[in-house]
Each structure stands twice: as structure tokens, then as C-alpha cells.
Amino acid sequence: MHESVTIKIFGQEYKVRSGGSEDHVRELSRYIDSMVLDVQKRRNAATTMELVALVMLNMADDVTRTKVELEKMQETLNNRIKQLIDKIETVVP
């Protein structure tokens, strides 16, 4: 069941429906709000839409960097597993 949750972003309240927990939705809204305030402090966006666009670009950058980092970690892990398997196979007849 989709519950209605009231969140507040950049001083504006919104009612949203979500299948997730209220706590999770509120946590996400706090994260978004903090990103908006951070971008607002660092840059001088002329309009709310410019501010939203800058926040979305920052979030997209965070996601992209995290994905690249995760892929590198996965590759490192796969290489290490292969090395361990190779060592085991050379020791065990």
C-alpha cells in the first residue's frame, strides 16, 4: 500500500506517495534538502529551476563516480578471487 508522506525541501512542503517506509522517504528528502542548501551556498542560481538543475547534476555526478568506484572494486575483487583460485589449484592436486 502506498502511504502519503509529507516532506520538506527548500522550505516547501510536498505530499508524496511511496511504497517505501516513511523514515526512508524522509531521510531521502533530508538528503535532497541538504544538497539544495549546499548548492545554494556555493553557487548563485538565479531561479529555482537553475538550482534544481545544479542539484541534479551534482547528484548525477555522485552516482556516476560511485558506480565507477564500485566497478573498480568489483574488478579488483574478481582479480583477487581468480588469484586465490589459481593458488589453490596449484597446491591441491
Q: How would a textbook summarize the main sheet?
A: 2 strands, antiparallel
Number of strands: 2
- The geometry reads as elongated
Unreliable stretches (pLDDT < 50, length at least 5) are none
Number of structural domains: 1
Rg? 22 Å
Number of helical stretches of at least 4 residues = 2
Would you tell me the overall average pLDDT?
Answer: 91
Hey, roughly how much beta strand do the residues contain?
15-25%
Structural class: alpha+beta
**What strand order characterises the main sheet?**
1-2
Explained architecture:
3% of the residues are buried. Strand 1 and strand 2 form a beta hairpin. Helix 1 (22-42) packs across helix 2. This protein has one domain. It has 2 helices and 2 strands; from the N terminus they run E-E-H-H. With 93 residues, the chain is α+β, with helices and mostly antiparallel strands. The termini are far apart. The mean pLDDT is 91. It has a two-stranded antiparallel sheet with strand order 1-2. 70% of the residues lie in helices and 15% in strands. It has helices at 22-42, 48-91; strands at 3-9, 12-18.
Give the SSE layout.
Layout: E1 3-9, E2 12-18, H1 22-42, H2 48-91
Helix pairs in contact: 1-2
